[in-house]
């Protein structure tokens, strides 16, 4: 895939990362519970190289925070930057470079992303004296996000397969 097409796909991932959570919030569905920003990153990662997926994952929460005020820029969007960057890179690398099964890639990406979120929370509280207990934050993020993780396990593989077939997208 040429660089222009890859960058357009990356921009589309970011745009969907702003649009999907906005739709969720307009319908009064909690983003903290259903994790709508994660869906475009995880799906889009299948159609770009790992580095484009990483950049799209990193920029999406920051762009959303600046454009919509959700999530709050610091510390939440800042922390999500690391989580979604790792989601994107891991998902793309496993699917496109290692040719791992889509469900295995998704589960590994979800674990890697949440691990990055936890590490970012620990570092952020240490460096910036943020009033945030990283362990309680992670416990809350995981428990609150369980419905969103279930939604990801249901929708992401279906959406990737549907986009691959119907739009004849070439994967990353």
Report on the architecture of this protein.
The chain crosses the membrane at residues 6-27, 39-60, 72-90, 102-129, 141-163. It comes from Acidaminobacter hydrogenoformans DSM 2784. This protein has one domain: Arp2/3 complex 21 kDa subunit ARPC3, CATH 1.10.1760.20. Helix content is 80%, strand content 0%. It has 8 helices and no strands. It has helices at residues 3-26, 31-34, 38-44, 50-68, 73-97, 102-128, 134-144, 146-166. Helix 1 runs parallel beside helix 4 (50-68) and helix 6 (102-128) packs across helix 8 (146-166). The longest helix is centred in the last third of the chain and has 27 residues, at 102-128. The radius of gyration is 15 Å and the shape is globular. The mean pLDDT is 92.
């Amino acid at each position: 895939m040429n660089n222009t097409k890859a960058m357009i796909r990356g921009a589309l991932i970011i745009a969907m990362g702003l649009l999907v959570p906005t739709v969720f919030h307009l319908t009064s569905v909690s983003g903290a519970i259903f994790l709508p920003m994660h869906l475009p990153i995880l799906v889009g990662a299948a159609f770009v190289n790992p580095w484009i997926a990483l950049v799209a994952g990193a920029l999406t929460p920051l762009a959303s925070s600046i454009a919509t005020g959700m999530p709050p820029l610091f510390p939440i969007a800042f922390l999500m930057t690391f989580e979604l960057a790792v989601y994107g890179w891991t998902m793309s690398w496993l699917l496109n470079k290692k040719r791992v099964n889509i469900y295995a890639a998704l589960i590994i990406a979800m674990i890697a992303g949440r691990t990055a979120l936890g590490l970012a929370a620990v570092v952020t509280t240490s460096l910036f004296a943020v009033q945030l207990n990283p362990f309680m934050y992670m416990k809350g993020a995981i428990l609150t996000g369980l419905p969103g993780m279930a939604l990801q396990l249901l929708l992401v593989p279906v959406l990737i397969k549907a986009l691959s077939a119907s739009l004849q997208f070439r994967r990353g």
